[in-house]
Design goal:
34 helices; 8 strands; globular; about 5% strand; two-stranded antiparallel ribbon; 6-stranded mixed sheet; mainly alpha
């Protein structure tokens, strides 16, 4: 049987998959020749069929045809694609070497199509551009960022093997979710950049969930799933992207989803915290599924042994020396044995960069100070070369500028970025030129800017601004705070929370920022506290008791999870405020009384979560009393609420050790519900 005839007889879906099969199987031209030998053909076909069974590529064309947009364009492109492959496969036995070259081109084309298809949702890591083409090659993002990937990937053999096995396993459930934890600079992002590239070459749609989109539609998720290929989605900074994760998983778990190919989702974060527990309490199948997901996996140190660290250090020195045109010093290398510093892969690379500059140190603060000084000097050179005023270009003004861009996060809109930077006295007359200059080093979108990266370097730069003057950071934020949108305020709270978690003595920075505009800051601060915990959690809990007006507290109720460990005190204070505000309103209408009774029920639950069981019991009893009156006035409308409230009261009585009374209330609740279910089975029997 001729391979070309076999594939063509099966249709174009298998044609595309056959190209990917060959890409995995054929490593060089000698391999290709062996595949084409007469005694090898039947084995190749059997292996191909087995590969199809494992990869589920047989549904490629069917899945693609289900895409719900640009269908006509897709049909035209795919017809052209099939026609070209027919020509390629028909030449296999006549000139296999020329055919191999053509198939390689088709493989690249197919992978390019996958990138184009999924780019609305996923950022597929590409090999970094040639260093010679970079505008600047010597600044921190170009040398140290994970996606710059200038230092060869090192180690992680065991982790890579485990993740490959998980991704490629033939588990009954086509969906798999994992969580990986590790401090900033540990190498989480770099590990999955490398794995995404690897899986991309294997024919997967593999990439990072894009961070530059505020939201995405269910249709965009279906678009990625509809590409017909197995999918690997990595979500970095997972704690700050809970809504995105819920939306993604809700689509993947939708019983109506027809695609059944393999999907793997990886969540990356520094620590577990409240965010993971909150995510497991999500609705729409998400929480139930995540409750069965294995516990988050701590990602170990990249180089746990001294020999590994020295090997990575030497590799970084060679690469950075080539880029910077500097010889590697012959002096003794620094002692890399301190786990608290060199347990982070990033710090080994920072030490190598400092070593090339003649700085030999094993102290994290000294090493990061050097990188910050170096970065500031590079920006100074760039600004002077572009003609910015010499009176403005000095160390203090540059650090203030870079600290601000790091605090407020990516600014893709150049006009908005210029207006914010113009709030700084040294740059108010030249902010558009400053944005253009910074775009060369820290690009965001086509003309915007972002802060100093990697995170560890940017956060240290922010800290260095306040090293000599404790309130310098707060005064900097005060200049621009009124002009910041919610997204920039949210980012600032994230950065300040990360700093506080690493350096607890600086927890006051987040608290000071919170008080810059209490009314406007409560929501973004609450969202950050929900996912990251301290220090904003402590600040909000204190304010809820002593300093937030009831009207502001009540506005936060929709944003509090039904159950929360970290925010118990705060949630209780918010609900108490809601109850007090409703109590003060006229209660002549039944609907108003119902709202008040419902709020009392919620307060009882919050009080119980805080361990205030007697107070919770009193509120639950008051709620039941109101619901009884309402049910007597309008049974059809309020008896279901009475039953629910009685059930809640039973739980409160049980918590106080009043088990006989609890049993009586529970029996009454069940009795009412039975009557409701008998009268309307469809409405009440499911419950």
């Amino acid at each position: 049987m001729v391979l070309a005839e076999f594939c063509l007889s099966q249709g174009p879906g298998l044609l595309a998959s056959f190209v990917l099969f060959l890409a995995e199987r054929v490593k060089d031209r000698r391999d290709w020749q062996r595949e084409m030998e007469a005694d090898k053909r039947e084995e190749t076909i059997r292996d191909y069929l087995e590969w199809l069974r494992r990869q589920n590529h047989a549904e490629l064309l069917a899945a693609l045809k289900r895409r719900d947009r640009e269908l006509a364009e897709f049909r035209r492109e795919f017809a052209d694609y099939v026609e070209s492959l027919e020509e390629v496969l028909n030449t296999i036995y006549h000139d296999h070497q020329a055919a191999l070259s053509e198939v390689e081109k088709e493989i690249r084309g197919l992978r390019g199509w996958v990138v184009k298809t999924t780019s609305d949702l996923l950022r597929i890591p590409q090999l970094p551009p040639a260093l010679a083409k970079r505008t600047r090659r010597d600044h921190a993002p170009a040398l140290l960022k994970a996606d710059a990937a200038v230092v060869p990937f090192f180690g992680r053999e065991a982790e890579c093997a485990d993740i490959r096995e998980w991704c490629e396993s033939d588990a009954d459930d086509p969906l798999g979710v994992r969580v990986y934890l590790g401090p900033g600079g540990q190498g989480k992002t770099r590990l999955f950049i490398e794995l995404c590239r690897e899986f991309h070459t294997k024919g997967w749609a593999a990439g990072f969930l894009r961070s530059d989109i505020e939201d995405f539609s269910a249709g965009e998720i279906r678009w990625v799933l509809g590409c017909g290929l197995p999918v690997l989605v990595v979500v970095d900074y997972a704690a700050s992207r809970l809504d995105h994760i819920r939306k993604l998983l809700a689509q993947l778990l939708d019983p109506a989803r027809s695609e059944n190919h393999r999907v793997r989702v990886v969540l990356l974060e520094r620590s577990e915290g409240e965010w993971w527990e909150e995510l497991k309490r999500s609705g729409e199948y998400v929480g139930d599924y995540l409750a069965q997901v294995p516990n988050p996996k701590p990602l170990g140190s990249l180089a746990s042994g001294l020999a590994d660290r020295e090997s990575l250090f030497a590799s970084a020195c060679r690469v950075y020396g080539d880029i910077l045109g500097k010889p590697v010093p012959r002096e003794s290398v620094p002692d890399l044995s301190d786990d608290t510093v060199f347990g982070l892969a990033l710090m080994i690379q920072v030490a190598a960069l400092a070593f090339l500059d003649g700085v030999v140190s094993t102290e994290q603060t000294e090493l990061l100070d050097h990188v910050v000084r170096r970065e500031t000097h590079i920006v100074e050179e760039l600004f002077l070369a572009q003609g910015l005023p010499k009176t403005s270009v000095h160390t203090d003004s540059l650090r203030e500028l870079l600290a601000l861009t790091t605090l407020v996060g990516p600014l893709p809109d150049k006009e908005y970025a210029a207006s914010l930077l113009g709030s700084l006295p040294d740059w108010q007359d030249c902010s558009p030129a400053v944005v253009r200059a910074l775009h060369a080093l820290y690009p965001e979108g086509r003309a915007g800017i972002r802060g100093v990266e990697p995170d560890l370097v940017g956060e240290h730069l922010v800290c260095s601004l306040g090293a000599q003057e404790p309130h310098a950071i707060t005064r900097l934020l005060q200049r621009v705070w009124a002009d910041l949108r919610t997204s920039e305020r949210h980012w600032a709270f994230v950065v300040l929370s990360r700093i506080a978690q690493r350096l607890p003595d600086l927890s006051r920075l987040a608290d000071e920022a919170l008080h810059l505009d209490l009314a406007g800051n409560l929501l973004p601060a609450l969202l950050v506290a929900r996912s990251m915990g301290t220090p904003l959690l402590d600040s909000l809990s204190k304010l809820a008791v002593t300093g937030i007006p009831p009207s502001l507290l009540a506005s936060l109720t929709p944003h509090l999870p039904e159950q929360t460990v970290a925010l118990r005190r705060f949630a209780c204070a918010v609900q108490q405020s809601v109850v007090e505000s409703l109590k003060a309103l006229p209660s002549t209408e039944l609907s108003q009384c119902a709202r008040y009774a419902g709020a009392l029920n919620d307060l009882a639950n919050r009080l119980s979560e805080c361990g205030q069981r007697r107070e919770a019991l009193a509120k639950a009893q008051e709620a039941v009393s109101i619901w009884r009156d309402l049910a007597a006035a309008n049974p059809d409308a309020f008896r279901p609420n009475l039953s629910i409230s009685l059930s809640n009261l039973a739980a409160m009585l049980s918590g106080c050790g009043q088990w006989q009374e609890a049993m009586a209330k529970a029996q009454e609740a069940v009795s009412i519900w039975r009557e409701l279910a008998a009268a309307d089975p469809d409405a009440f029997r499911p419950y």
